[in-house]
Each structure stands twice: as structure tokens, then as C-alpha cells.
């Protein structure tokens, strides 16, 4: 076994590397999307955007979870009016979600939105399209073309008979052409579907057809558990193939969960690292302490740590020492209520009859501070 004083070293193994598709880079406010920029995690507020106070509060909760970009629906003028205050009060760039109403797009750009999610083919005459694009250009606003299998243009449904990857990509490229024809290139594209197979096939096709940055999502994926599973499969497949520059996990749940799941998908693929990743065993008759309860409590009490770290929480010596060698902090259950604690991959001390959770929290906080201090040097 190699020296594990550098527990993060295993993350550098060549078989863990994902070769990302080369996309052009755009800016969404102060966030770079595409190229070699980190894959951005997005979520969407579910408050009334016209209720600026509630929306700001929700965005702040998302920011605490690490969100990079936030989207707000702007179905009416009250929403675009409130957007100005929202944009002023939050740190994350705000995407205004616009459907059909070109005036909302102009108002949102004027209000300081960093991006408009709008399909130029759906907003009417060429003049209207030009007006929206001009507003976006004037205010440094990006755009996202958001094709959805559930709302494809009628002529494409007639041509292809049903929503299919070909129809979705044709729709996306037609919207893109309108922007290109107006000398607008600061945009990303999504081709979402609730069906994982359809979404993945559409994204793969689109990734080959253009070099615009892609916003990934499995739309209407379901509740917290099934939505997480579907998103992990669909987004995981694409990201593992190097496709995707920004993601949104769509859940019928608290949007903060979308942010957490988004980061966890990226963490599982080594594409982003944020906060503590807990490696824990499922437990069995050999466990020497209550691993499940320990992990549940740790997840809550370590949520404030943003420093990337791995912590192994293992019930017995069967897998404990091996896992601990690859983590920053580790615990392996032992007899007589005496457990082995590992720091930076090495056995460090034993904890007898102690409060496991509080002890680990203390160690993690200390290690996080050390890592941050090392980074600052
Ligand atoms: Fe059971 Fe030990 Fe494996 Fe955990 S590490 S599942 S306690 S054998």
C-alpha cells in the first residue's frame, strides 16, 4: 500500500479522468459557462418572483448550499419589476425564465438579469426578436435556448410524429440560428425531457451538432428520491461522456435539495468538489457503533463545511482501515466501545466511550481550517 498521507491523491488517477467536450465559453453574470470552466450548478426558485422578499430569502438558502446560477420565472410585469430588487440583493447571477412574452424579456434584461431563458422562435415577429436581442446585448445578458420535449413546435411534431431527439435538436438549432443571424452568440442550449433515454439521446446529438455550452437537465424528474435517481442516471451518463457545462436537477422538492443533489452528482464524478463527502458502510452484524445514526447526524452538522474533504465512517475493521487510508478523517469501529480514529490516512488515536459525532465534527473543522490555511499560502 502506498503512503496515504495525501488522501486526495487517488482522485488524480487516470481512470478517474473525464475528457470534457470542447465547448465555447460564455458568461452568465460573473459565472463562466463552457470551455474549461467548472460545471455550474443551477436551481430555480419556486416562490412568486413578484414576492421579492421570499425569493431573495430562498436564493440565499440556495447560495448557502453553493448554487452558482439561479433561475426565476417571470410570467408577469410584477415579476420583472421585483427582479431588479432580487438581482441587487443576491450574489448568484439570475436567469429570467420567459415564455412567449417578449416584453418580459426586455424588462428582465433591463432589471439586471444575467441571462434570459427564452426561445427566440416563440416570441413572434422578427422585430420583436431583434428588440429582445438588442436588450440582451445592451445589458450584457446571456440567453438560454430551452427546448423541452413537452412543448415542441407543432410543425416538428407533425414532421416527426412525436417528440424525438431529431425533432428536439432541429428545434434547438433553429432557435440558435435566429440568434446567430442577429450576431448574438452568448448563449447556451438545453434539450430537456422527462424521459431519460430521450433527453440523453437529444443531448448527445446536440453535442455533436454544435459547440455551444449545454445546460443539462432531466425535466419533471419527480420527487426527491426518484428525481435524484433519474437525474443521476441521465446527467451522470452525459457528464461521464464529457457532455455538459451547467446542470439543474429538477425535483418536486425544496430547491436547496436540487443544489445539493447537483453537487453530489458532480462530486461522484470528480467534476466538482465542495464540502464533505462521507464514505460509510451499510453496516451489518459486525458493526461496533451506530453507523447509520452517526452518518445522519454528521450530514447535518457538517453541512456548513465548504472545503472539499472525505470522511470515512466505517463500522468495523473489515473495511475501516482500508477506507480510512484514502480519506482526510476516518473512524473504524472497535471493541469495548473503543474506536480507531485516522487523520490524513494514518491511525492517529483511539476514542473510548466518547461522543463520536462531536469528535468527528471537531476533527473535520480543524482539518478544513488547515486545508484552507495551506491553500492561502
Ligand atoms: Fe459490516 Fe464492517 Fe462491512 Fe461495515 S465495514 S458493512 S460493519 S463488515
Put the structure in a nutshell:
By secondary structure, the chain is α/β, with parallel strands linked by helices.
How would you describe what is shown here?
The chain is an alpha/beta fold. It folds into two domains: 21-268, Dihydropteroate synthase-like (TIM Barrel, Alpha-Beta Barrel), CATH 3.20.20; 276-376, Sulfite Reductase Hemoprotein, domain 1, CATH 3.30.413.10. Helix content is 41%, strand content 18%. The protein has helices at 52-64, 77-89, 102-111, 126-138, 154-160, 165-181, 196-209, 224-240, 255-268, 291-301, 320-324, 356-376; strands at residues 26-28, 31-33, 40-44, 69-73, 94-97, 115-117, 142-148, 187-192, 215-216, 246-248, 276-280, 309-314, 329-332, 338-343, 346-352. The strands form three sheets. Strands 8-7-6-5-4-3-10-9 form an eight-stranded parallel β-sheet. A five-stranded mixed β-sheet has the order 11-12-13-14-15. Strands 1-2 form a two-stranded antiparallel sheet. The radius of gyration is 23 Å and the shape is elongated. 46% of the residues are buried. The mean pLDDT is 94. Iron/sulfur cluster binds next to loops.
